[in-house]
């Protein structure tokens, strides 16, 4: 809570409001009539902007939610006898209520990672049974960028995983719920660590970075989206007034609003990290590479802090918590939070 009584916590960048430029764009999109189901000028312009970012061969489909983007993107390139390999911390494993398995029919197989990032050596235990009818056939490697631990894959790390997938006839899927934060952290174009690095299917998220709702499924390899329009319809994700999803991306990409927002939230995480890293009793558990700070807190401290600045536990068994910053987090929010933290710690 700041002095103006505007509540902003550190639970999730989902909790932040909608950026004013997005709201302005929605107001413009709202004028007059437009043909439904994506055959409107706003959707056409948004798709053009995606092609500018990811390449002319990109096929773009707008959906309502990130879960839908992940599930339908994976379903498009798999059969029910396939498996999807991912990190144990991945959203498709932890936070989608089994939807990937229910709708794709695939097994989701996980590996434990110290920092949320998959590596080829960690995947070895699942890279077998190809052509063996008694074994689920590995079909997709799914990574998250930035990861659920706040870490960021480099282009070379992604290329290595793409090469592994393609050598085995598999696909590489990227959950890009926080892809803008990753791009801002790496300071390179989206295309450099997606299309150019061998990613086949991308779930592109904007709601964690200033948008109101809606995501995009980007097929980066030509030919993968054949008949996908039917799958999206069956998946109940074909919006009649699609311009209100797609139109947001016009403002999102215009003048690199996405980058401005992501750089700000990343910088707020760095500020928070720098202000708490030397406080006695605080242990930072992950590299701060995007907009998340992971910490170990002494017992009893979190509960009191959460009364004023809500945030989520990450691993309660060892008193580990996650602090997320957002496009609208202020330096005042950080200062007040750290002041309260120090007070609770008695420092």
Provide a concise account of the structure shown.
With 347 residues, the chain is α/β, with parallel strands linked by helices. It has helices at residues 20-29, 41-54, 66-76, 91-94, 99-104, 120-123, 155-167, 179-186, 228-234, 243-253, 257-276, 301-305, 331-345, and strands at residues 59-63, 82-87, 107-111, 137-144, 171-176, 201-205, 215-219, 283-284, 292-296, 312-315, 320-324.
What does this structure look like?
- With 347 residues, the protein is α/β, with parallel strands linked by helices.
- The radius of gyration is 21 Å and the shape is globular.
- The mean pLDDT is 96.
- It has two domains: 237 residues, 3-Layer(aba) Sandwich (Aspartate Aminotransferase, domain 2), CATH 3.40.640.10; 89 residues, Aspartate Aminotransferase, domain 1.
- A hairpin with a 7-residue loop joins strand 8 and strand 9.
- The chain is 37% helix and 16% strand.
- The longest helix has 20 residues.
- Helix 2 crosses helix 10 and helix 8 packs across helix 11.
- Strands 1-7-6-5-4-2-3 form a seven-stranded mixed β-sheet, sandwiched between helices. A four-stranded antiparallel β-sheet has the order 8-9-11-10.
